[in-house]
């Protein structure tokens, strides 16, 4: 088993022990060990074989023996026994936002609830509100969580689906006889969440490719095995979790590859528009060819198909039928921002608050990514759960930043904060302290249940504060976990436009907030966008690329994104804003 597969198994043991009611110190031992495993670097198998786990903090002799068993055999009897003892439906209840192992245990033991359907029925029958530790509000939240799961279905976040898709694609591309290969569908369009993986290859001999595909190591189950299409359930261990998705592979002759790539990339609405344009020109367009009484041009690439239809090439991210056809007709498509355009990032956390790396480690990691600047955005004082900084801690951090910048290490650190927006819309630091920052990100972290009018007024008031530079994760959503709080984003964007406030694309794949539709609206209003990874570790700095995906889907060009600017320009703009707010 790989490192991530072992970590996922160890973490699952901890969770199942929690459901069974084991002592906290014991369950935490498993969770802590799993966390320690995910942070290991280098050859994991070699480390285990050499006995190097003995030097890893948080992994004792007993835990080491379990890990060695998993690596050696791929199984852990303890985990198998726990899975057998706790019904699958009970484990699935952990998917409901706000239901942890303790509450799941209470529901199972006291009400005999053993699955999502039974949980929904108990809520609707008003059986849960009376349980100790629950109440009417919890019951209502469980129902909302169940509705959210129904809506989300079996979708997977892009940061989890993409590695699995690429793992399959890289193996398929190496099969003998494969000419061209690509990911298609919503993964290629870079949607925030993915339902399944679509793979396409071209070859003159599809049968050996089909046979090899269904026997890949990542394949857990074969659900279809045909001559030119096969379907499987595939899995990949990633960051201590098991990612399982449906995946389809199609094989076409190479002269059909461009048509199949276009068709299977989608979206459906975009394809309908293209087919109508083909009809208007006396042709028929499908996944195999462009045909008709009038001879159609040869099309080896997607660009050739668009050209034949009188259009400029439409990047996959824009293929949603939201104006891209009309823009392509006029040769007015945007030159989309690229990940290589980003020169630095703001809204990042260090060990001063809830980050896992020091200020210097984060800054140097930023430099290693080729960035010119790194912006600190640790939490403000009221968010004690995230070790928010007191004014004294802020002043200490600023001294450290000054000392770091004086060393000229090739990356400039900006003094920033992620300042909480309080219930009345005021900011979490006094004005005098706010003036000491180079920039201020304002965010909501509490009281998500406010009515829409009150939440909107709260955020809009914060945007009018002279010290506010940018709004962080504007809706508070967590993809596939919880909906955002109720807020009138149109009004928020209008206020931001009036006050020149930047809006953040939060690139954490759990958030990707704001989504691309509002990014497009923000661009129309002339609002500067900033792409931030909201990084809590060195590795998470690289998540900015997922924010770039959102920006591209929102039609943004390089000039629309603030942190594509070089350091000298950023310094001047932030200084201008500070002077204007004084």
Task: Give a quick set of tags describing it.
DNA polymerase, domain 1, five-stranded mixed beta sheet, alpha/beta, globular, Beta Polymerase, domain 2, 43% helix
From the 3D coordinates, which CATH architecture of the largest domain would you assign?
Answer: Alpha-Beta Barrel
Q: Tell me what portion of residues adopts beta-strand conformation.
A: 5-15%
The major pleated sheet works out as: 5 strands, mixed
Order of strands in the sheet with most strands: 2-4-7-6-5
> Kindly state the mean pLDDT as a whole number?
93
Q: Over the alpha carbons, how many angstroms does the gyration radius reach?
A: 26 Å
Which stretches of 5+ consecutive residues score pLDDT under 50?
none
What structural category characterises the helix and strand content? alpha/beta
Helix residue percentage: 40-55%
Please give the CATH class of the largest domain: Alpha Beta
Q: What would CATH call the homologous superfamily of the largest domain?
A: Metal-dependent hydrolases
Count helical runs.
Answer: 24
Q: What's the structural domain tally?
A: 4
Q: Predict the CATH topology of the largest domain.
A: TIM Barrel
Determine the N-to-C terminus distance.
Answer: 58 Å
Number of strands: 17
Shape by Cα distribution: globular
């Amino acid at each position: 088993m790989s490192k991530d597969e072992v970590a996922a198994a160890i973490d699952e043991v901890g969770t199942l022990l929690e459901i069974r009611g084991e002592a906290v110190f014991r369950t935490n031992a498993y969770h802590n060990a799993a966390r320690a495993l995910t942070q290991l670097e280098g050859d994991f198998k070699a480390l285990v074989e050499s006995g190097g786990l003995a030097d890893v903090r948080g992994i004792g002799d007993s835990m080491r023996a379990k890990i060695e068993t998993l690596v050696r055999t791929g199984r852990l009897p303890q985990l198998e026994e726990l899975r057998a003892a706790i019904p699958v439906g009970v484990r699935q209840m952990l998917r409901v936002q706000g239901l942890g192992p303790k509450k799941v245990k209470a529901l199972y033991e006291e009400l005999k609830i053993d699955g999502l359907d039974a949980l929904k029925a108990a809520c609707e029958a008003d059986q849960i509100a009376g349980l100790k530790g629950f109440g009417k509000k919890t019951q209502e939240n469980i129902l909302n969580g169940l509705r959210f799961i129904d809506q989300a279905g079996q979708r997977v976040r892009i940061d989890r689906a993409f590695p699995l898709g690429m793992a399959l694609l890289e193996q398929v591309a190496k099969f003998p006889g494969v000419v061209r290969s690509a990911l298609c569908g919503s993964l290629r369009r870079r949607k925030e969440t993915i339902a399944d993986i679509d793979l396409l290859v071209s070859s003159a001999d599809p049968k050996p490719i089909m046979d090899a595909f269904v026997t890949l190591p990542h394949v857990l189950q074969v659900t279809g095995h045909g001559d030119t299409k096969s379907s499987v359930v595939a899995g990949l261990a990633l960051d201590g979790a098991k990612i399982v998705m449906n995946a389809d592979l199609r094989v076409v002759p190479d002269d059909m590859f461009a048509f199949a790539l276009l068709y299977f990339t989608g979206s459906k609405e975009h394809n309908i528009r293209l087919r109508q344009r083909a009809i208007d020109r006396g042709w028929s367009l499908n996944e195999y060819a462009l045909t008709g009484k009038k001879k159609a041009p040869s099309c080896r690439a997607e660009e050739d198909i668009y050209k034949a239809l009188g259009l400029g090439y439409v990047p996959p991210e824009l293929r949603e039928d939201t104006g891209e056809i009309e823009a392509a007709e006029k040769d007015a498509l945007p030159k989309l921002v690229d990940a290589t355009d980003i020169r630095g990032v703001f809204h990042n956390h260090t060990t001063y608050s809830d980050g896992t790396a020091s200020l210097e480690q984060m800054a140097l990691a930023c430099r290693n990514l080729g960035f010119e600047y790194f912006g600190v955005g640790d939490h403000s004082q009221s968010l004690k759960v995230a070790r928010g900084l007191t004014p004294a801690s802020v002043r200490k951090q600023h001294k450290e930043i000054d000392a770091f910048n004086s060393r000229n290490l090739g990356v400039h650190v900006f003094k920033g904060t992620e300042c909480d927006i309080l219930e009345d819309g005021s900011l979490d630091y006094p004005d005098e302290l706010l003036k000491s920052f180079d920039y201020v990100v304002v965010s909501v972290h509490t009281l998500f249940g406010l009515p829409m009018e009150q939440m909107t007024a709260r955020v809009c008031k914060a945007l009018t504060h002279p010290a506010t530079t940018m709004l962080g994760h504007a809706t508070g959503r967590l993809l596939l976990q919880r909906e955002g709080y109720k807020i009138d984003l149109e009004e928020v964007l209008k206020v931001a436009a009036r006050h020149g406030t930047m809006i953040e694309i939060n690139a954490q794949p759990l958030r990707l907030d704001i989504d691309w539709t509002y990014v497009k609206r923000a661009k129309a209003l002339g609002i500067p966008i900033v792409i931030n990874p909201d990084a809590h570790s060195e590795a998470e700095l690289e998540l900015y690329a997922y924010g770039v995906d959102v920006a591209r889907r929102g039609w943004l060009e390089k000039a629309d994104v603030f942190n594509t600017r070089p350091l000298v320009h950023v310094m001047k703009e932030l200084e201008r804003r500070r002077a204007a707010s004084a």
